[in-house]
Amino acid sequence: MIQIAIDGPSGAGKSTMAKRLAKELGFLYVDTGALYRAIGLYMLRAGVATKDPAQVLPRLAEIKLELRHIDGAQHVFLNGEDVSSEIRREAVSMAASDVSAHQGVRDFLTETQRSIAQKNNVLMDGRDIGTVILPNAQIKIFLTASAEERARRRTLELEQRGQKVSYDEVLADIRQRDYNDSHRAAAPLRQAEDAVLVDTTQDDFETAFQKLCDLIRGRID
To answer: DSSP alpha helices (H): ranges in the chain?
Structure first.
């Protein structure tokens, strides 16, 4: 099986890019961030302090997560409920950052992700795919852009979904998320030594897509 790992900071466009690449290449797309978001959503609903592992970890036994592909799109189910839209809220994004810092949460999801990769040609994106989840992936990419550009893209994306947001608040959240993800004790965000760095600050989506597509095809053809 061929494994492609795409890591990078919040707002770098990993999920959107990975979905398009997987479709183009005929690979199974696995949105690992969505799994952490679903756990964050559950903890928010339960009134749990997401930064406190003593509160978060005991509740994991109450969670059942499923990834289903419906009409060509990945949907995330939390205890039988399709939460694919709700997990994209900014509050859930921050909660996901909090819970992903707990080693117990990462252990809870690691085997699920590896099992999928053993049975399929996969394209998986997240924060620690190339460093922890799939350390032997044949292709590793670290996708990034400046914090300002990522905030601009995220603000536009949220506005298109009908959410009223402030660019300055989104930028502050992006910078906080970057700090949290790179400084956490459990699998911090970092570029794998054998990953290719791709900075898309100056690229529109189609340019970045073609750049990544050419890179991947050059490695697997």
So the answer is: 14-25, 32-45, 53-56, 90-99, 103-119, 147-160, 167-183, 205-220
Least Cα distance to 217 among 28, 58, 2 occurs for: 2
Strands of 65-70's sheet in order across: 65-70, 73-78, 81-82
Task: Say whether 125 sits in a helix, a strand or coil.
Answer: strand
Query: What is the 3-state secondary structure of 154-207?
Result: HHHHHHHCCCCCCHHHHHHHHHHHHHHHHHCCCCCCCCCCCCEEEECCCCCHHH
pLDDT in tens, the chain (221 residues): 899 999 999 999 998 999 999 999 989 888 888 999 999 999 999 999 999 999 999 999 999 998 887 887 788 999 999 999 999 998 999 999 999 999 999 999 998 889 888 888 999 998 899 999 999 999 999 999 999 999 999 999 999 989 889 999 999 999 999 999 999 888 889 999 999 999 999 999 999 999 999 999 999 87
Question: What single-letter amino acid sits at 161?
Answer: R
Cα gap 65→62, rounded to integer Å? 10
Nearest C-alpha neighbor of 198 from the set 1, 17, 2 = 17
Give the separation between CA 183 and CA 193, rounded to whole angstroms: 18
